[in-house]
Amino acid sequence: MPLFVAEPYIPAAAVPYCRALWNEGAFALRIARSRRSKLGDYRYDPAKNQHFISVNGNLNPYQFLITYIHEIAHFHVQNRHTHRPVAPHGREWQHCFAQLMQPLLELDIFPSDLRDVVVTSLRKPRASSCTDRALYKALQAYDANVAPNEVLLESLPPGSFFTFRKREFRWLERRRTRILVQDVHKKRNYVISGLARVARLDQQQPAPLMLPVSRTAPGDWFLLGTRRFQHEQQKRTRFVCKEAGSGQRYSIHGDTWVTPLSTPTDAP
């Protein structure tokens, strides 16, 4: 019997079903290293008439299983619709994926809390488990070898410091499902998914929040670099601000990020 390379990566109860799908399908299966951009992929080479599926080997068993079925659904859709193009994650794929997942639900492969989320997600499957927030969070609860200080970015309070991909950042503000953060050393701002796993850094004092000048009100004080200013009035996209001490006025663009202060002398 050929070696089923995915066997060590999936729940034991799912192995017979997953092996049968592999035996029935004419595709090459590969366990891939961790990839930031995707959990797995399906590829068809028309020149060789060959199908290829890969799944990242660092996924927990339940996420690996769902990704494996996800890619096999692509394989089936490709074979069924050879004469007309279909959307990668359109109705054809959604229907096929839900059908392939049904036997796993009947086998009680998933823990009850995760199963409920999986059932809900199958009503309209997403292009990736990463884009289904409820499913992604439920799956992350079963990740192994997670450091004690590793958390989801969205769970941190504003002003927190954390590391992400070996760089230090500060949590600035929430933007729907994403978080605006600032690189501590480069002072550049980035937007990161709230579901990103980060390493929390302990700080004796919370970091001061930052916001654009456009979000301050007339009379508010703020710190820009090491200089203190007071918001006086808005002129289209710029703001007239008075420097503390010198009293000199400057025109500052509304998109400039500053640290709000309670008083002109309240500064770190």
What features would you describe in this structure?
It comes from Catalinimonas alkaloidigena. This is SprT-like family protein. With 268 residues, the chain is of the alpha+beta class. Helix content is 24%, strand content 31%. It has a 6-stranded antiparallel beta sheet, with no helix packed on it. The chain has a 6-stranded antiparallel beta sheet with strand order 10-15-11-12-13-14, with no helix packed on it. Strands 1-3-2 form a 3-stranded mixed beta sheet. It folds into 3 domains: 7-140, Zincin-like, CATH 3.30.2010; 150-201, Roll (SH3 type barrels), CATH 2.30.30; 211-261, SH3 type barrels, CATH 2.30.30. The chain is elongated. It has helices spanning 15-24, 61-80, 91-106, 112-121, 133-140, and strands at residues 27-32, 40-45, 50-56, 150-152, 161-164, 167-175, 178-183, 189-193, 197-201, 211-212, 221-224, 227-235, 238-243, 249-253, 257-261.
Secondary-structure arrangement, i.e. CATH architecture of the largest domain = 2-Layer Sandwich
Overall morphology: elongated
Alpha-carbon Rg, integer: 25 Å
Low-confidence stretches: none
The CATH topology of the largest domain = Zincin-like
**Helix share bin:** 10-25%
Strand content: 25-35%
- Highest CATH level, the class of the largest domain: Alpha Beta
Q: Reading side by side through the largest sheet, how are the strands ordered?
A: 4-9-5-6-7-8
Distance between the termini: 68 Å
State the major sheet: 6 strands, antiparallel
Structural class: alpha+beta
Task: Give the domain tally.
Answer: 3
Provide mean pLDDT, rounded. Answer: 88
* Tally of separate helices: 5
